[in-house]
Amino acid sequence: MSQVLVGIDRILARVGKRVVSSDARGETITVEARSTVRAAHCPACRRWSNRLHGSYVRSLEERPMLEQRVVLAVEVRRFKCANAGCPRRTFAENIHALAGRHQRRTRSQARALHALGHALGGEAAARLANALGLRTSADTVLRELRRAPGRKRKPRPRVVGIDDWAIARGHQYGTIIVDLERREPIEVFAGRETTAVAAWMRAHPSIEIVARDRAGAYSGAVDIALPAAKQVSDRWHLLCNLRDNVERLLYRLGPQLRQAAQQSRSVA
Ligand SMILES: [Zn+2]
Which ranges constitute the DSSP H helices of the chain? Predict the structure, then answer.
């Protein structure tokens, strides 16, 4: 495999694909990529399935190189959902990291068009893009601009963790909320009062499970805002709690323990 294809292979590996062939014809290099994954999880019920339903090929325009247009012909597998109770019968594997939904170009190509459009506006950006080998039109550049990150759909968290953190220890505290499925913080605000937390929870009705500490404030907020949500004590706080209690117990029993140790020594 040429060095150039090794680079493309690395990008494709992130979405479970590998390069199987490349074909240079005229001014276009077509790189064919196949799936390496045997199973995927259903976007509706999150259950894994390896029941293959079929596959199709998505053609994605990648950034041009060495004066040649690059098209990735990527196999996308479709699976049957293994969960009989799921509303989704079949689903396609997720290649969002490579290209957005219904997009005919890769994210890296889209980012290039977006940057040009942002700097120059539709017409001038399209002219420069074409001179650089990124075939496009002013309309496409403007469409890319409208897809700007600020307009991204709001995530709908399902499982979140909530905890407090010290802005100034002993004086001022803040609250952090983490989407535990995406593993990313989604909210940080000052304070940890029930009303503020309940207001935030109410604005996120997609939440089904909340992992929290064992203090009452967060638990009360979830009870008020999302009574149907399941509340779980997170492992860290459970262990913390256990350690504190064992420590207190040993401290309280200290004199007796020392006495018992002395007695057993004198008996021996
Ligand atoms: Zn499903």
Answer: 3-13, 107-120, 122-131, 138-146, 194-202, 216-225, 235-252, 254-267
> Which residues 6+ apart lie within 8 Å of 95 measured at CB?
15, 17, 58, 74, 76
The dihedrals phi and psi of 172, each to the nearest 5 degrees, come to -135, 130
Residues 184/177, Cβ–Cβ less than 8 Å: no
Backbone φ and ψ for 22, nearest 5 degrees, come out as: -140, 150
Distance from the alpha carbon of residue 242 to the mean position of ligand 1, in angstroms: 38
Mean pLDDT score of the chain: 88
Distance from the alpha carbon of residue 81 to the mean position of ligand 1, in angstroms: 5
Please give the average per-residue pLDDT across 19-42, as a whole number.
90
Cα(19) to ligand 1 centroid in Å equals 29
pLDDT of residue 67 exceeding 90: no
Quick one: tokens of 249?
Answer: 């117990």
Cα 15 to averaged position of ligand 1 atoms, centre (Å): 20
CA dist., res. 40 & res. 91, Å (int): 9
How far, in Å, from the CA of 102 to the mean position of ligand 1? 21
* Residue listed under structure tokens 């905890």: 163
Give the Å distance between the CA of 45 and the centre of ligand 1. 4
- Residue 159 alpha carbon to ligand 1 centre in Å: 17
Long-range contacts of 251-258 (CB under 8 A, 24+ apart): none
For the purposes of burial, counting CB atoms within 10 Å of the CB of 85, is it exposed (0-12), middle (13-18) or buried (19 or more)? exposed
pLDDT of 233: 86
Q: How far is the CA of 105 from the centre of ligand 1 (A)?
A: 28
User: CA nearest 220: which of 200, 203, 195, 238?
Assistant: 195
